[in-house]
Amino acid sequence: MTKKPIRRIPSAGPSITQAEIDLVTEAVTKGWYEDRNMHMDQFIKELHDYTGAKYVLPVVNCTSAIHLALLALNIGKGDEVIVPDVTWAASACPIHYVNATPIFCDIEADNWCISPESFKKAITKRTKAVIPVDLYGNMPDMDHIRDIAADHDLPVIEDAAEALGATYDGHHAGTLGDIGVYSFNATKLAIAGQGGALVTDNQDIYEKTKQLRHHGMAEYQTKMFWCEDIGYNYLWTNIQAALALAQLRRIEDLVAMKRKAFHWYTDRLHTLDLQFNIEAPNVRNTYWITNAIIDKHYNVTKEQVIDEFKKHQIDSRPFFYPISSMPAYQRYVHGKDMTKTNPVCYDLSPRGISFPAAATLTEEEADYVCDIFTKVLKRKK
Ligand SMILES: Cc1ncc(COP(=O)(O)O)c(C=O)c1O
To answer: For ligand 1, is residue 286 a contact (CB within 6 Å)?
Structure first.
């Protein structure tokens, strides 16, 4: 029996070193008055250098970045936006904010990202954009997605909230669409507590989103507090930018930690009938969270595993529920049988478990999690 861990094993959380403490301390002590944006400006520069995106707009969180992206594309009432059914709800709720209709499509069975065929099938005359999601640090088949989008003149908003550090054909996650968005919330690979960024190579989109980010104010040199639009208060703070900047400087180490954790799990669980996330030859998957889809013959649900884990001081998470299955989104489903529209989502989700994925996870803890998990499955069999 593997030794009991010394702490309750967290489901997610950051790696904080002296580098983060130093930069945040600097932000708190010096980042005011004429230096009030010193870390924010540096963050913009370094995220630009890292991803290659031409314009970087930091915002209060990724949900607001998606909201601004939809507004900049003039998406509104009567429009439809296609989004995968399995993702965090934040990919879809901004579609509701702009009074447009989310259309939920299926995912692929192997990479768990948007299915190109299902996306294509979901396109109507009302479709105005698609939001492919780089789920759990993996990448969709972006060539295919972009080709379909281009054939129908649809802008692509790449939701890379979970995938900073992933690459596709050597290009960074977030830079493969017309607009990309990142999250720096406390569970992500690089964190700021809360935070987000919108990236684009399109100057018009950048300027429009920048204006809407701060109450629609124009950037006049002489006339302050002059609103040209009704915007939002989606400004980030310099202190949060300092924290994210320190994390960004450690991004390759953070990716390495996640990839190592993935191998701790897969090495120990390889004799069980599980499906792990894949990594296509042209992709670097960050494995932000290691998930396993439990084979049907074990006859166990993700909720049962989560409950068993809890009894053993392990916190874990369910693989995302199909958005179309949740009460809040029934208004967009209209009683349709979504298990037929999105069979892969509905097949995988009940059997998907997100293993503990804090950046501070140790090999001994992974050992313990695998030990308990194996016992749960063997008992159920
Ligand atoms: C796929 C996806 N999209 C969007 C978001 C929203 O990010 P934020 O929490 O920064 O608003 C998240 C974060 O939880 C996410 O996982």
So the answer is: no
- For ligand 1, say whether the CB of 91 is within 6 Å of any of its atoms: yes
Distance 220 CA to ligand 1 centre (A): 33
Atom of ligand 1 at shortest distance to CA of 133?
A: 1
Q: Is the CB of 159 under 6 A from ligand 1?
A: yes
Cβ–Cβ under 8 Å, residues 97 and 76: no
The pTM of the full predicted model, rounded to 2 decimals, is: 0.98
Please tell me the distance from the alpha carbon of residue 23 to that of residue 242, in angstroms, as a whole number.
6
Give yes or no for residue 161 CB within 6 A of ligand 1: yes
* Residue nearest atom 3 in ligand 1 by C-alpha distance: 91
In tens, the pLDDT along 121-175 reads 999 999 999 999 999 999 999 999 999 999 999 999 999 999 999 999 999 999 9
pLDDT for 176-188, tens place per residue? 999 999 999 999 9
- The interaxial angle of helices 38-51 and 18-30, nearest 10 deg, is 140
* Residues forming a β-bridge with 196: 59, 183
Q: What is the rounded radius of gyration, in angstroms, for the C-alpha atoms of the chain?
A: 21
CA of residue 347 to ligand 1 center, whole Å: 23
Question: What pairs with residue 82 in β-bridges?
Answer: 103, 130
CA angle 106, 190, 315 (to 5 degrees): 70
Task: Please answer whether residues 190 and 164 qualify as being in contact, where contact means their C-beta atoms are separated by less than 8 angstroms.
Answer: yes
